[in-house]
Specification:
The structure holds two protein chains of two kinds. Chain A is an alpha+beta fold. In chain A, 25% of the residues lie in helices and 29% in strands. Chain A contains five helices and 14 strands. In chain A, α1 crosses α2. Chain B folds into two domains: 207 residues, no CATH class; 111 residues, Beta Barrel (Cyclophilin). In chain B, the strands form five sheets. In chain B, strands 13-20-17-18-15-14-21 form a seven-stranded mixed barrel. A six-stranded antiparallel beta sheet of chain B has the order 7-6-9-4-1-11, with no helix packed on it. In chain B, strands 2-3-10-5-8-12 form a six-stranded antiparallel beta sheet, covered by helices on one side. In chain B, α1 runs parallel beside α4. Classes of the chains: A alpha+beta, B alpha+beta. Chains A and B meet through β1, β2, β3 and β4 of A and β16, β20 and α4 of B.
């Protein structure tokens, strides 16, 4: 692992910068450090914020000083050199088209593909979750097949329903909560990406992967029903495991 | 009875806040929390609470509240023109209220003030905190600002052990007024290398004006635009409260309690912890200037502030319990502090 740059953000933040590009390898390094800090915490750390290329450590300066914090992180990086923390792939069931995905036809037209082909492309990839942000639980995903890239809507919607799956240029993403948005909406998942009443309120984690799986309207309703009654188990498999 | 107040008028923006919701930043959930943690802690200490309890953060025009029983409360922060049954109250005061009493905050020279109740406000803990985060509608009272008709409840607690003191907090302990000192201390970075020396001097030497588009997410500043050395954007990285980002147009934005967890603009400097609370009392059109200090100086300033807070805690704990009332009144333009004692 390359030695990162340490940058102070005020007297209560330390940025551990692994690079300045959007690259899966950097995400891997960020995630490894984040997991190491979670497993070997040091008093004074409030939380960590992973991004494409850096990990921000927010700390309480009355409990720990930046010098001691940096030393701890350097120690962890030394020890974690050979360790690889396995990533997981979360399956996101999506009902494509119709009222769930009002822009699917437009995306197909733009790509000069059939609707079926767009769905196949969209469900064919494992998407790396670079980071979460914008709204709680919103995943920034890498890996959308170029064939189905599509510009944003000319006029953004004022309210995109929670669970909406969209495409904007070469990005794809999921809206965890009702929010305004200009992405082309191609489908919707019944999964709750952000549920503050849960012990683990956010479904996804930076550094992991997700893949979309097409479901019918009936299956969508079934899953939604199960989620309502806390009976649905989200499908999560180690990355590299066999696809169904 | 643990019913404390009924909300008669909601005011502009009042939300319950504590010291923040930490641990969910990696999922894109901002910490939120009191914009001025110093005044928040004062308000709690003044009624004998732990600093972990929530307080009601009131902005510019506070609510009108009717007391539903006998309770001890405290107000701390900027001057929102607080009135108790029509009598003006000082900005930092603890008092006992009785059923039917009316508390108003019609507006004054200040921006934010914090209202606490002995024993703490009764609010659900959502993801480890009682702080309201408006954009996700979580925390506080129904995840939203105060609404007319709501009843504010207190926790059912044994209050006999809490200090009985009420009165005006000595002036030296009040939060600093931006009118008295316009200087906010910062540490350079993390991306000050996106600017040359001349631009960094421009940042610290000029009077920045607070724009009216300033809220719990961030404060926009106006002045002579800062010019980036080369690139105007960075690959997004994490942001702390107090980080000062400079978008392409060169007018800085100070990121605050409700800001998104990541950002794509270079951050020229970051406000030090001890001055974050003070900055929260600046209002639109106020002038602010920044002074760069060292890490050690920042830590020293924070420790000094911490010592003052411990001193205040001590002061309150050792004051005799009394039935003394303090009023600050104006008669024909002259101001008086009036002390009323039960006999």
């Amino acid at each position: 692992m390359r030695t990162p740059r340490f940058l102070q953000q005020g007297d209560h933040g330390l940025v551990v910068e692994f690079g300045d590009q959007i690259h899966p390898e950097l995400v891997e390094q960020v995630r490894t450090l984040m997991v190491a800090l979670r497993e070997r915490p040091i008093p004074g750390i409030l939380e960590t914020i992973p991004t494409y290329r850096s990990l921000l450590v927010r700390y309480n300066p009355l409990q720990i000083r930046v010098q001691a914090l940096q030393r701890h992180i350097e120690d962890l990086l030394q020890q974690e050199k050979q360790q690889i923390v396995p990533a997981f792939v979360t399956e996101i069931p999506v009902c494509y088209g119709g009222e769930w995905g009002p822009d699917l036809e437009r995306v197909a037209e733009h790509a000069k593909k059939s609707i079926q082909e767009v769905i196949l492309y969209h469900t064919s990839a494992d998407y790396l979750i670079y980071m979460l942000g914008f709204t709680p639980g919103f995943p920034y995903l890498g890996g959308l097949p170029q064939e189905i890239a599509c510009p944003r809507l000319a006029t953004p919607r004022t309210a995109v329903p929670a669970g909406s799956v969209g495409i904007a240029e070469t990005q794809t993403g999921i809206y965890p909560m009702v929010s305004p948005g200009g992405w082309q909406i191609i489908g919707r998942t019944p999964l709750r990406l952000f549920d503050p009443s849960k012990e683990e309120p956010v479904l996804l984690q930076a550094g992991d992967y997700l893949r979309f799986a097409a479901v019918t309207e009936e299956e969508y309703q079934e899953i939604a029903e199960k989620i309502e009654h806390n009976q649905y188990v989200v499908k999560k498999t180690p990355k590299g495991g066999a696809r169904e | 009875m643990n019913h404390i107040f009924r909300v008669e008028q909601a005011g502009l923006l009042s939300t319950f806040q504590d010291l923040g919701r930490f641990g969910y930043g990696s999922f894109g959930v901002p910490a939120a929390g009191a914009m001025d943690p110093y005044s928040h802690r004062l308000a709690n200490f003044m009624v004998g609470n732990s600093e972990e309890e929530a307080s009601l953060e009131m902005t510019l025009l506070g609510p009108t509240l009717t007391a539903l029983g006998t309770h001890r409360i405290a107000i701390a922060g900027g001057d929102l023109g607080a009135q108790y049954n029509g009598l003006p109250l000082p900005a930092c005061v603890a008092l006992e209220i009785h059923e039917g009493d009316v508390l108003r905050f019609p507006g004054g020279n200040g921006v934010r003030s914090y209202l606490s109740v002995a024993g703490g406000w009764d609010l659900p803990i959502v993801m480890g905190s009682r702080s309201t985060y408006l954009r996700a509608s979580i925390g506080g009272l129904e995840g939203a600002p105060l609404k007319k008709g709501q009843v504010l409840k207190g926790q059912k607690q044994d209050l006999t052990q809490l200090p009985k003191w009420h009165g005006v907090l000595p002036r030296k302990y009040w939060p600093l007024d931006p009118q008295d000192s316009k200087t906010i201390r910062v540490l350079w970075g993390p991306q000050d290398d996106y600017f040359d020396q001349e631009q960094k001097e421009r940042f610290t030497s000029q009077n920045w004006k607070v724009n009216k588009d300033s809220d719990r997410m961030g404060y926009r500043l106006e002045g002579d635009a800062l010019v980036h050395l080369d690139k105007k954007e960075i690959v997004s990285d994490g942001v702390c409260q107090g980080a000062i980002q400079v978008p392409g147009h060169g007018q800085p934005i100070v990121l605050l309690a409700d800001a998104q967890t990541t950002g794509g603009y270079p951050k020229i400097a970051t406000i030090v912890s001890s001055d974050l609370g003070k900055f929260a009392h600046f209002r639109a059109s106020d002038i602010v200037n920044f002074k760069a200090i060292t890490y050690d100086e920042a830590i020293q300033a924070l420790e000094e502030q911490e010592n003052v807070l411990q001193e205040i805690k001590q002061y309150i704990a050792t004051q005799p319990s009394s039935s003394v009332w303090y009023y600050h009144i104006k008669i024909r333009g002259e101001e008086f502090n009036v002390r009323v004692e039960e006999i």
